[in-house]
Amino acid sequence: MTTIPLFHVLILSSLLFLIGFVGVVARKNTLFMLMSLEVMLNAVGVAFIGAGSVWQQADGQVMFVLILTLAAAEVAVGLALLIRMQNKYRSLDIDLLNQMKG
Amino acid sequence: MADILWKLFEITIIIALLIPIAAMLVWVERRMIGIWQDRHGPNRVGPFGVLQSLADLLKILGKEDWIPPFSDRLVFVLAPIIGAMCVLMSFAVVPFSPSIGVSDLNIGLLFFLAMASLAVYSVVLAGWASNSKYALLGGMRAAAQTVSYEVFMGLSVMGVVLLTGSFNLREIVLAQTNGWLIQSQFVGFFIFLVAGIAESHRLPFDLPEAETELTAGFHTEYSGLKFALFFLGEYLGVTLISAMSVVLFFGGWLMPEPFASWLPPLLWFIIKIMFFVMFFILLRTSLPRPRFDQLLKFGWVVMLPLALLNLLVTAVLRLTGVL
Amino acid sequence: MLLASLPFYQLLSFLLLITFGKKLSWQLAAIISVSSMALTVLASTILLFELSASENQILNVNLWHWFDLNHALGKSQINLSFYLDGLSAVMISVVSGVGFLIHLFAAIYMKSDENFARFMAYMNLFIVAMLILVLADNLVLLYLGWEGVGLCSFLLIGFWYHEKNNVLAARKAFIVTRIGDTSMAIGLLLLFNSFGELNIAAVTTLVQQSSHSVSGLSVEQTNNIYWIALLLLGGAVGKSAQLPLQTWLPDAMAGPTPVSALIHAATMVTAGVYLIARMHDIFILSPEVMNYIAWLGAITLLLAGIAALAQTDIKRVLAYSTMSQIGYMMLALGAGAWSAGVFHLMTHAFFKALLFLTAGAVIYALHHQQNLFKMGGLLKKLPFEGSLFVVGLICLMALPGSSGFFSKEAIIAQLWSSNTAGPLLWWCAILGALLTSIYSCRLFFLAFMGTARFSDKTHSEKNILLRSALIILALLSLFGGLIPLDLTLVFPTELAASIPEILEPSWLHTLAILTPFIGILFSWFYFKKYRTSRVVGSEYNLSASESRLVVFCRQGLGFDSLYSLLFIKPYQWLAEKNKHDVVDQVIMLNAWYISLWHDALIMMQNGSLRWYLAAFGLAIMLLLGVSFL
Amino acid sequence: MFENVASIEGLFYFAGLVAVIASLKVVTGNNTVHALLYLVVSLLAVAVCFYLMGAPFAAGLEVIVYAGAILVLFVFAVLMFGLGADETKNAPKSKSLANMMGAMLLAAALLVEIVVIINNAEMQQSLQANVISSKAVGIMLYGPYLLAVEIASFLLLSGLLAGYHYAKPDATGGDL
Fold first, then answer.
1. Could you give the CA distance from residue C231 to residue C235 in angstroms, rounded to a whole number?
2. Backbone angles phi, psi at C59, to 5 degrees
3. Which secondary structure element, helix H or strand E, spans residue B198, and what is its range?
4. Of C606, C609, C617, the CB nearest to A102
5. Could you say which of C606, C609, C617 has the minimum Cβ distance to residue A94?
6. Computed from CA positions of residues D81, D84, D86, D87, in that sequence, does the dihedral angle turn out positive or negative?
7. What is the mean pLDDT of chain B?
């Protein structure tokens, strides 16, 4: 019985997405980048759910479930790499990883 | 408007009942342990020491509400609140009787699981915010333990969902009119019980606060009201797990026909809960504490496959029409 | 079929030697190369008989179709086919005969060289190229041989590549002859453009037909023929070391002596003469060019004779002498005395090969001493070589009875009344003959008479094969003039006959015959010092004159410095100024453009994850913007 | 009825606002654990949004899996490996918003574009959102999306293996 306009849902989604994007681009701490990435994934989820509810299709939620699994796998690998990085560099500064100098 | 007011009243009543119950449970537990361990237990304050909890409460309230200067103040304060809040929120979906219950969510079971998984933040954050070694170790143990056991806790109740076809707890209870689910889901019940003990980190799975190793685990630095909140959360958690076991596997307020008319449904429900609370207390007195790696290994190697197997068998039987 | 196989004995030998060179013993390598040469001689002898037996004195063989050239007038087939007529028969007999003897000599002369097999391989390759040049039935194939001999010349001059001078000489020879070759290539293109044919016989027929037709040649065609002839002459001038491209030949003497004998005296340098003789139909239609050829030959022979007078190196004397003699041939061709020119080519090949080989033997006997002023009195010490050298010199001076006499007199006799030559050129020829005898005498006196101006003991090579090769050459030189050379089927009847109004004075022949003797007489007294030199104290009383004029002559009449001033210095100046190569810079603009992108992309690929992400976001923004627009 | 609708919409906007603010705090925060907490808040707010949009199942999953498991993993990693401090060696001293200026400008431009595009596509007709039951989702998942589910399971497996492999201390791992 809800009448939340899709427009507003998508605005929320893009706002969240862009906040996450800013975080990924602007932060140097890899952990924060990963968190911002979660925000971005979440925003995509919002868009899917919103669209799914507007068109009365379950596909939106299905896609959200898939995003969820993706996020889980991503976090597992990402955190493992983070730990590796911490062990090797004693820092999470992503800029330390640019050893490929062009 | 009247609806909303009535709901608020209902919530207030339930909370007002639950908190004393939790307080009383402290006395019950100590008293029962005393009996089972062949000693007296608290017996000085009031008849049979009934007022012991009240006395403890007063003592705790009178203590200095100390926040360690080396801690993270915000999180330190927030952590016990989260714990108590999550458990109390979970009670919102518990159907106490056909007419009593805060919310009739159609994803009630999921809501319960969600709250259970959020409750871990309380312990973890308390451990972190205390900024002390024992607390941190306790917090980490809590995180690992909860995340691990949460997985097959969810899986174990999926058998129930399969058979009842609903996440709504009220519908699940009603679906057991012709027989409790324990009949077919005894494996699921066993897993749920174990996971529930781990989730509420009660003995024998109380490794986050193992006194012999970690002083007091995650709440080493806590005192006063915040310590009381942790205690409240723990005993409410015991009650919650008992209530959920009853709802999911023992028919909630339902009783077989000859007994059903003897007492009102709410009382039947409370009796069943009390039975499980007693069972938890009995467990605490009788079982030793495992090592942490044993705990995790037991969870991932024994319980998770068992839960999956249970789910698979249930699904197969459901599809073949046996259940 | 035999004709087709002619170059292949050598080719096979070349391939064997160049492939297994280092592993072959001297004997095996020598046997392979010399026997292949012997096979060539045998084959060409049989071919000569076949040729004389054939009805129109022409043999033709087509090996395979090479490629087609398209022209407005129709398609021209370029085949790998050989064509043997009187002219090429003379050439192959010279190439194979003299070549065989020189191979024989070289096999012994170069015995101790560590790269003997390579040397013989190059020699064989040279013969292959020369035979292709001579036998080619079209100008493309001829050009292939032409460049082939140039390559071999380069390789052989620079054979001892460890010495800088040899390498420089090789380079000089290559570059200078390339100038002529370029001119020739342009000539060939122009020829094809005008007539649509490059087959020699076809071109000849075409030219003859159009010139004999009623309308005659068009103005444009006449013009074209003039230029074609001039350009072909350029090629011939380069290859035959005529003015103005003669400067490479004296330097080319840096190569081993057999090379000088084979390539730079007997065969390759006469390729230019052969080319003009082969294409005489073109040249006849362009009398101006004929006149140029005559003058070119005359001037070359005089200048080379003068330069030869001042040389101190025995091989350089012979080199200038070669230039001078080829000048005679050119003069003959220019005067229209075709068969006389070719005849002189043949006799010159004999006696000049003899002279070079004997000089080589002398040099060898004197431990690689080439300076004339360090010789002297060799007639007594090396009587065999000395007497052979005398024979060669007699032929060179064209004393009556020798082969040189017949050929040279034939040339001189036709000069006076030729309408493309004339009395003036006749006088030049006489003067040249005089110079020839004078420098020959000087050479002889310096080297073989007087006292020995060296301390080392001579060691004469006594190998019977080597000596027999020399003896055969000497015999050929002496009696080669008696070989009947009938080229009437190849060349048109002599032009001289068509101009009867120019009267030939009666004393012409007498003077021509007497000229060498005058020269000898003059030298006998003028160079008295040389033949009677004595040791004064510990010093020899003889040394090369260092007067400015002599040095000028010795250095080839200043052509090298002139060219250096005219071409090399300005070019070097240009190169200096254009160190960064303007054209190259224009081309490098591409590279610069690419590297600009490269730099830009490198800046993007900086390994910074956040940078990548920002680029990613920017790209998304642009894409969205595009989709919005 | 109108009041009810308005309140649902109002709740949605409120939850959305909370989500945005919490996300902003995540991005701009310095304390790792605080940021994680804000992230949890953001996720919970988004879960509320899901619920209000008629996707209770997704809301449940959001809390259970995202907030309850994935972020606990984060917290666990932070606690266990001491990743708490923001050890960015190259970071500028001041941590003001000015440092994020470039990224924020980019994001703002993107936002404007997206808004314009969404607005342009005439998508904003409001449709009545009914609750989509978890049953429908399940049917879809094990029907048309079966392959996607299988792929997701492989993804999880590979994530498990990769996480295990990378997080192993170097000493215990041999050459792989």
1. 7
2. -115, 145
3. helix B186-199
4. C606
5. C609
6. negative
7. 80
Tell if the CB–CB gap between A95 and C608 is shorter than 8 Å: yes
Does D69 contact B147 at a Cβ distance shorter than 8 Å?
A: yes
CB contact under 8 A, A7 and D114: no
Contact A28 C610 (CB under 8 A): yes
Closest-approach residue (CA) in chain D for C625: D113
pLDDT one-digit tens code per residue, B66-106: 777 777 777 787 888 888 888 887 887 888 777 776 677 77
**Domains defined for chain A, CATH in brackets:** 7-91 (1.10.287.3510)
Question: CA of C629, closest CA in chain A: separation in Å?
Answer: 20
Distance of CA B128 to the CA centre of its chain: 23
What does the block give as tokens for B27? 């006395």
ipTM over 0.85: no
Angle at CA C516, nearest 5°, toward C513 and C521?
125
Q: Is D14 on the interface with A (CB under 8 A)?
A: no
Interchain pair C613, A25: CB under 8 A: yes
Q: Any idea which residue has 């071109």 for tokens?
A: C203
Whole-angstrom Cα distance, residue B133 to residue C265? 104
C-alpha distances in Å from residue C258, one per residue of A5, B74, B113, C90, C265: 103, 106, 106, 21, 10
Q: Which of D102, D113, D116 lies nearest to residue C621, judging by beta carbons?
A: D113
Q: Among residues C96, C137, C117, C132, which one has the least CA distance to residue C15?
A: C117
Nearest to A9 by CA among D124, B142, C460: D124
Q: Domain coordinates of chain C in residue numbers? A: 290-488+505-544, 548-577, 582-628
CB atoms near residue C502 (< 10 Å): 12
Listing DSSP states for chain D in one string gives: -HHHHHHHHHHHHHHHHHHHHHHHHHHH-S-HHHHHHHHHHHHHHHHHHHHHTT-HHHHHHIIIIIIIIIHHHHHHHHHHHT--S---TT--S---GGGGHHHHHHHHHHHHHHHHHHHHTT------BPPPPHHHHHHHHTTTTHHHHHHHHHHHHHHHHHHHHHHS-GGG----
Q: Tell me the per-residue pLDDT of B32-62, one tens digit each, with 9 for 90 and over.
A: 888 887 887 777 777 777 777 777 778 877 7
Q: How confident is the model at residue C76 (pLDDT cuts 50, 70, 90)?
A: confident
Cβ-proximal residues to C159 (8 Å cutoff; 6+ apart), any chain = C115, C118, C119, C122, C166, C255, C256, C259
- Comparing CB atoms, the residue among A21, A28, A98 nearest residue C607 is A98
Q: Residue B251: left if φ>0, alpha if ψ -120 to 50, beta else—which one?
A: left
CB atoms within 10 A of CB C214: 4
With CA atoms as reference, the chain B residue closest to D63 would be B114
For the segment C43-59, what is each residue's pLDDT rounded down to a tens digit?
Answer: 888 888 888 888 777 78
Residue C359 has pLDDT above 70, yes or no: yes
Higher pLDDT, C10 or C416: C10
Using CB atoms and an 8 Å cut-off, which of residues 17-36 of chain A contact chain C?
A: 21, 24-26, 28, 33
Contact state of A49 with D50 under an 8 Å Cβ cutoff: yes
Q: Give the start-to-end residue ranges of the domains of chain B.
A: 1-54, 67-320
Query: Contact A11/D118, CB-based, under 8 Å?
Result: yes
Instruction: Please report the pLDDT score of residue D121 as a whole number.
Output: 45
> Is the sign of the CA dihedral A33, A34, A35, A39 positive or negative?
positive
Q: Mutation target for C interface from D106, D118, D120: give the one with most C CBs within 10 A.
A: D106
Question: Do D and A touch (≥3 CB pairs < 8 Å)?
Answer: yes
Give the one of D106, D116, D120 whose C-beta lies nearest to C618's C-beta: D106
Q: How far is CA A18 from the centre of its chain?
A: 10
Under 8 Å CB-to-CB from B150, ≥6 apart: which residues? B113, B116, B117, B120, B195, B199, D64, D68, D69
Average pLDDT over residues C462-478: 83
Contact C279, C200 (CB under 8 A): yes
